[in-house]
Design a protein that fits this description.
The protein has a seven-stranded mixed sheet. Strands 1-2-3-6-4-5 form a six-stranded mixed sheet. It has helices spanning 3-13, 52-59, 65-77, 98-115, 180-189, 205-209, 217-226, 262-271, 275-279, 297-306; strands at residues 23-24, 33-36, 41-48, 83-93, 118-126, 140-150, 166-171, 197-198, 203-204, 231-234, 250-254, 286-292, 311-319, 325-329, 332-335. The chain has two domains: 20-154, 60s Ribosomal Protein L30, Chain: A, CATH 3.30.1330; 166-335, PurM-like C-terminal domain (Phosphoribosyl-aminoimidazole Synthetase, Chain A, domain 2), CATH 3.90.650.10. The chain starts with a helix and ends with a strand. 30% of the residues lie in helices and 26% in strands. The protein is an alpha+beta fold. The chain is globular and about 55 Å long. A hairpin with a 2-residue loop joins strand 14 (325-329) and strand 15. The chain contains ten helices and 15 strands. The longest helix has 18 residues, at 98-115.
Length: 336
């Protein structure tokens, strides 16, 4: 974390002492905050879709990014053990465009359906002075804030992780909503058009990049109900570095990595991107992870398969004061 961000967080942390403020039950740096308002506790998170929106604007495809903003938030909420219940969105537009608004709303509704949450309200702002995009009139920004409920005895802080736990990974649907600044630069410098049909994808490059973020809410709820996960991870910005966010003196030895989606292999090849940068920028085909006791490996994987999400036993936890992650296969050996 940069010095400037650390200073900003220190300032904001002072608000925890204000009268009637909710008492935080987990430290900063987790996927969501949890406040003590009784039992159950309130979990909440906020996130956006980032520069993936520029792909949507250039393609003129707006029906999927609503799913992304729901998934980016709801997938974070479940990582503290909470069940998401509602989200409010903030949509900022260059101009008021009915077709664009309806398309985004359809995506939000579909995302809410997948996450089993409501969208009880939100905010729409028209700010042409602040927004510019690749196509005049279609610039917009979309973020959301999600809330959920978690019983006090089910809060996942990451402190439950122990050495020799199993790390189970669950397949992503593609890039999801992180790493697009690098991806866009690579394809632009290579001269690739978003409308170019790519045989490995079976669709255009733009359509591949706009594949919605996989929703892991049902998966997480089933894991919390049927297993005893010690931690849940949403692999977002930073890729596999997300595994270092939780626990103390815990590292990972990962020796069973699935073949990354073709889009990642293409980015690596075109941009001459090192494996370490790829695995610390993108999800590389694993969008969600669970740390579980070794005896629950089979059960955990079966839950994923039952819900149509391919599961992999990636490796195990280790004792590591440096929170070291070792990715090691026959063709790859890097430390994070």
């Amino acid at each position: 974390m940069s010095d400037s961000l650390t200073r900003a967080l220190d300032i904001l942390t002072q608000t925890n002492n204000y009268p009637n403020s909710g008492k935080p039950l987990i430290a900063n740096g987790h996927y969501a905050s949890v406040l003590d308002i009784g039992d159950p506790c309130l979990a909440f998170s906020t996130d956006g879709v980032g520069t993936k929106l520029l792909i949507a604007q250039e393609m003129g495809i707006f029906e999927t990014v609503g799913i992304d903003v729901i998934a980016m938030n709801a997938n974070d909420i479940v990582c503290v053990g909470a069940e998401p219940i509602a989200l409010v969105d903030c949509l900022s537009l260059e101009i008021e465009d009915e077709e664009l608004l309806v398309a985004i709303a359809k995506g939000l509704a579909e995302g809410a359906k997948q996450a089993s949450i409501s969208i009880p309200g939100g905010e729409t702002a028209i700010i042409p002075e602040m927004l510019r995009g690749p196509t005049k009139g279609t610039a917009f920004d979309l973020v959301g804030s999600c809330v959920g409920l978690v019983p006090k005895n089910r809060i996942l802080s990451g402190m439950e992780i122990t050495s020799n736990d199993a790390l189970i990974g669950f397949a992503s649907s593609g890039i999801h909503s992180n790493g697009f600044t690098l991806a866009r630069r690579v394809f632009k410098e290579a001269g690739w058009s978003l409308n170019e049909k790519i045989s490995e994808f079976g669709r255009t490059l733009g359509e591949e990049l706009l594949q919605p973020t996989q929703m892991y809410v049902d998966l997480a709820m089933a894991l919390l109900e049927e297993c005893t996960p010690h931690a849940l991870f949403h692999l977002t910005g930073g890729g596999f570095e997300n595994l270092t966010r939780l626990g103390e003196n815990i590292g990972y030895h990962i020796d069973n990595l699935p073949t990354p989606n073709p889009v990642f292999e293409l980015i690596s090849k075109l941009g001459n991107i090192t494996p370490k940068e790829m695995y610390t920028t993108f999800n590389m085909g694993i969008g969600f992870c669970a740390v579980v006791p070794e005896k629950q490996i089979t059960q955990t994987k079966e839950i994923g398969e039952r819900l149509g999400i391919t599961a992999y036993q990636l490796g195990k936890t280790t004792d590591s004061k440096e929170r070291l992650i070792r990715l090691e296969t026959s063709s790859l050996s890097i430390s994070i």
